[in-house]
Specification:
There is one protein chain. By secondary structure, the chain is α+β, with helices and mostly antiparallel strands. The protein folds into two domains: about 70 residues, Arc Repressor Mutant, subunit A, CATH 1.10.10; about 170 residues, GAF domain (Beta-Lactamase), CATH 3.30.450.40. It is about 45% helix and about 25% strand. It is built from nine helices and nine strands. Strands 6-5-4-9-8-7 form a six-stranded antiparallel sheet, with helices on both faces. The protein has a three-stranded antiparallel sheet with strand order 1-3-2. Helix 1 crosses helix 3, helix 2 packs across helix 3 and helix 5 packs antiparallel against helix 9. It is globular, with a radius of gyration of 21 Å. It comes from Oceanobacillus luteolus. Keywords: DNA-binding, Transcription, Transcription regulation. This is IclR family transcriptional regulator.
Length: about 250
């Protein structure tokens, strides 16, 4: 891949935490020379990927352009499983008033491609496009557990386990045991592994070829958890995952 393209993508990534950035802020965040940043920003503006926002002669900032939204929507429209899963997610969200999310694997990470928030004052808010390591949290663990064995072993061999939250699994043998357990029981459970003060349940979704497509998950605050609530969540989740997989052609 061309270095200029990689640098341009790096500039777009600078907007993850802030909606608008000045040229100097882009230079500082990207750690690239000012002349390089200026040249790339100019090209990105011409392409519609960035928009120039002049507040004054001396205060010019940049924000992401709508062209990115158009491209993003094209990607979303390609996700057949998302369209099928969304009605079930809405039903669970309305019935339980808990956060519901859908995650897939991309480049050895879990990526959240759809989510519905609860309306509780205390709730987990996941951004669409957010990423997580495959060893932390219920949805990432489901994805890893049902990845093809050779690819999973390659990932585990090169993996550096890092403590992210109070209960992140940082022992490789324990992680392998956890993945085996997930495969056998058909769902994953997590308690403060990636998000603090959060409990999660997730189930795999398969397509007509029996291939893993995504992980459907529900998250809730630790303070509201009980065995009864957990069983209710799990029943709804397992049923929804089975129905979505069935609509995708999965027969098992």
């Amino acid at each position: 891949m061309s270095q200029s393209l990689l640098r341009a993508i790096k500039l777009l990534d600078c907007f993850n935490d802030k909606a608008e950035l000045s040229l100097l802020e882009l230079v500082e965040i990207s750690n690239m020379p000012k002349t390089t940043v200026f040249r790339l920003v100019t090209s990105l503006v011409e392409a519609g990927l960035l928009v120039k926002v002049p507040y004054s002669t001396h205060d010019v900032r940049y924000k992401l352009g709508l062209k990115l939204l158009q491209l993003g929507m094209r990607v979303m429209n390609q996700l057949e499983y998302r369209e099928i899963a969304l009605p079930y997610m809405k039903e669970i969200n309305a019935k339980l008033n808990e956060s519901v999310h859908l995650a897939v694997i991309e480049e050895d990470e879990a990526v959240y491609v759809e989510k519905l928030d609860s309306n509780k004052p205390v709730r987990l808010v996941i951004k669409i496009g957010a990423r997580a390591p495959l060893y932390a949290g219920s949805a990432p663990k489901v994805l890893l557990a049902h990845t093809k064995e050779t690819k999973r072993n390659e990932y585990l061999q090169q993996l550096e386990l890092k403590k992210i939250a109070p209960n992140t699994i940082v022992d490789r043998d324990k992680l392998i045991q956890e993945l085996t357990k997930i495969q056998k029981q058909g769902y994953a459970f997590s308690r403060e592994e990636f998000f603090k003060d959060t409990i999660g349940y997730s189930c795999p979704i398969f397509d007509g070829a029996g291939q893993l497509v995504a992980a459907l998950g529900i998250s809730m605050p630790v303070i509201e958890f009980s065995d009864e609530k957990g069983n209710e969540i799990l029943n709804e989740l397992i049923n929804a995952a089975k129905m979505i997989s069935s609509e995708l052609g999965y027969r098992n």
